[in-house]
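User: For documentation purposes, I need each entry recorded in a consistent format: the amino acid sequence on its own, followed directly by the corresponding structure tokens. There are two entries in this batch. Please keep commentary to a minimum and don't merge the entries.

Assistant: Recorded as requested. Entry 1:
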Amino acid sequence: MEMSPYTEEYLRSIDVHGILPQQDPFVMIGCLTGFSISASTTETVIGDTNIFVDGGRLSAAGMLENIAQTCAARIGFYNKYVLHKDVQVGFIGAVRNYVVHALPEAGSVIVTEVDILEEIFGMTLAQARVRCGNDVVAEAEIKLSVRNIE
């Protein structure tokens, strides 16, 4: 991730509810820990009451939603704290090469890293990795569309 003027401590202090269009019980990220124009990182403790926890493990659908919300947190932070605009609503346009290596247990901490590959005409193509400890537990390419709000 390129250098950012925002410290991890500052990013962690931001309530993710203010930078995401989703609200509880659908918030799937804990805090934003890294931000730049071309990347974002979030950290999440998987709660045992999370709606995507099944059999004591975060489901593949839950990890995909976590990836999408890590992308949304980047856009939301940029709009709210850099451009001083409202948070935009985005939609998953496509998911490619989604590979789940393991389903993390409830109580685990996952770190999701998203690198932006391309942005054009309100569409974002990103590469994402979800880590639990030192292990990559999921990875995907995701295409998102953002509805412009003026």
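Entry 2:
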Amino acid sequence: MVSPQELLYTQTHEWAKIEDNTVKIGISFYLQSHLGEITFLELPPLGRRVKQFEKIAVIEAMKAVVDIHSPLSGEVIQINEKLKETPQLINSSPYQEGWLLVLKIENPEEKSQLMSFEEYEKFLQTTG
């Protein structure tokens, strides 16, 4: 079970759950609520390497199309196959069933550039 309070966040509203040398990535409740119903998702292929904050996926929704950026550098080792058929899981369960992908982390020190839940909450108050 993933709790929003135990995650790290980016300024572009992605979340990161770090476990050992991997990171599970999704989008925040805030972002999914501003997008409306998600209709399509483009995820990267397995084995793709990305740098921190590089575009890694695209989400199409009723209100917008947004690029999703990687919170950390790494290699894609898993994608959420359920989202291919049911991208709306991101709307209904952004922290549980609606996760996007998992990376094998290349540079653990990069996590210092991410925000804690408390920092993210403050960030939302200043940007919203």
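Summary note for entry 2:
The chain has a mean pLDDT of 95.
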